[in-house]
Each structure stands twice: as structure tokens, then as C-alpha cells.
Amino acid sequence: MTLKGDLKAGMTVIGTWCASGSPVVLDIMSSFEQWDFIVLDAEHGPIDAVVAHSLLRTKKWGQLVRIENGGDYWTIKKYLDMGADGVIVPRVESGYAMRAIQVAAFYPPEGRRGLGYSPSNMYGIEIQNAPKASNQNVVVIPQIESNAGILNLPVILEEGPDAAMIGPWDLTADMGIPGKWNHNSYLKTLEYFLKECQRTKVPPGIHIPDFSPDKVLEMKKMGFRFLVFALDLSMLTWACEYGIKRLMEE
Predict the structure, then answer these.
(1) What are phi and psi of 143, to 5 degrees?
(2) What region does 124 belong to: left with phi over 0, alpha with psi -120 to 50, or beta?
């Protein structure tokens, strides 16, 4: 079963996030095969298409890239050509933007993605079968992380993405309450998001950037089905903070 297939089947999927671009760190993270997917973050940090190409090698889990240029056609195509199973697109704020993302991610007739020799088709070896296979399996997920995105959420979801994902830091910053996860306005926004996702049958997702398995499980109980636990940087920070605090107690 593919990641897209799992989402279509109504399953809850849990993955994690790599922002450092370190192949060593990604090797460690990917050694835990229980992940359903791992996201490479090209928006914040050093990951670009060249780095992604070197990292998109292990096929133990779904491989997604959070791209850096919003819904830009060429950026989406580039990372999919590098071998990503799908893209997470930051700050999607309109139905028009969502349609443009779909056009870039799918080969004709569903979209306008260009076809050429690339890692995604074994440099031409599988190029004839690539459009059909990719269109059946590519995952497209908009991040909703602004007031405008929430305002236009219904039309974004009606475009039929594979999931939609709350970006908590940017969303709360845009709301004027950065990082206040228990603020009533933010919680009401999450409730509205879940309700709209249920109405349109789009799997709701969220990234919990802190090292907090309990918070991820709390979001799962709320109804989120595409869950991202922490990221490599917060895992390392947590380990350092825990170790230093424990050592200073003696």
C-alpha cells in the first residue's frame, strides 16, 4: 500500500520531519521503519533539489518534500523529478493556488507536469510508464498556516488534495498568538479545520514540531489523520536539554 492509498483508505498515518539535510541524521531517522513517511524540509534550512536528490534514496517509507517556493510549477516539478512521492506546499491561501499546485504535480491529462529523463523514472528506463504510475500515487498536501488560508479553506479543500495540514507556528503567528497552542482562538480554528475536512472528506493533518508524543496522540484523538511528530532539530535539542539538565542536578 502507498501513502496515497493509506490516506484514501481512511488510515491514520504518522511520520516525522528532517530539516538539517544531514544524510547521517536521515539514516538514523529512517532506520525506524514504523514511520509511514518522512518529510524533507526545503523551506527552512539547507535542503535544495541537489541535497534532496542525494537523500531521496531509501524507499522504506513515503518520501515527501516541503517545498520552498509556495505553489511554483518549476519547484514542484523539480522535487517530484528528484524522486519525491509528493509535496507539502506552504502557505496555500486560495482555491486558485491549490489548482495550480495540482496542475504542476500531475502529468497530462490531469495536469501539466513535464516529462523528461530524471531519477523519478530511472533516468528514462521507466519513462513510458511514469505518467500513469505517478498520477496514481503522487501525494499533494497544502499547508494552511495563515488567516487567509483559514478564510478560504472550503474552496481549497474542494480542489481535492490528498490531505490538508495545519502549520501551527505560522498560523498562530498570523493570529497574533505565536506558539500559544492552548489559546481559545487557536483551538476553535482547529475545530473548524477538522469540521471542514470532514465535510469535504479530506484527511486533516498537523505538524507538532516539539518533542511531544503525547501532543501528537492528543491531536490523533481530536481527529487528525496525517500526523507529523517533531523534527530532527527538536529531537536533538530535547536530547541535549535533557542531558544537560540531568547532569547539572548532581
Answers:
(1) -95, 130
(2) left
Separation between Cα atoms, residue 148 and residue 136, nearest integer Å: 30
Cis peptide bond N-terminal to 142, omega within 30? no
- Which DSSP helix (H) or strand (E) runs through 188? helix 184-200
Which set of grid coordinates corresponds to residue 134?
505517478
Report whether the peptide linkage leading into residue 46 is cis, meaning its omega lies within 30 degrees of zero. no
pLDDT digits (tens, 9 = 90+) for 184-195: 999 999 999 999
**Domain of 77?**
3-248
CA–CA separation, 84 and 132 (whole Å): 16
- CATH code of the domain in which 78 resides: 3.20.20.60
Q: Which of 58, 104, 108 is nearest to 81 (CA)?
A: 104
User: What residues does 40 pair with on adjacent strands?
Assistant: 18, 65
| CA–CA separation, 128 and 216 (whole Å) | 41
Q: What is the pLDDT of residues 201-243, one digit of tens each?
A: 999 999 999 999 999 999 999 999 999 999 999 999 999 999 9
pTM over 0.85: yes
Question: How many distinct structural domains can be found in the chain?
Answer: 1
State whether residue 99 is helix, strand or coil.
helix
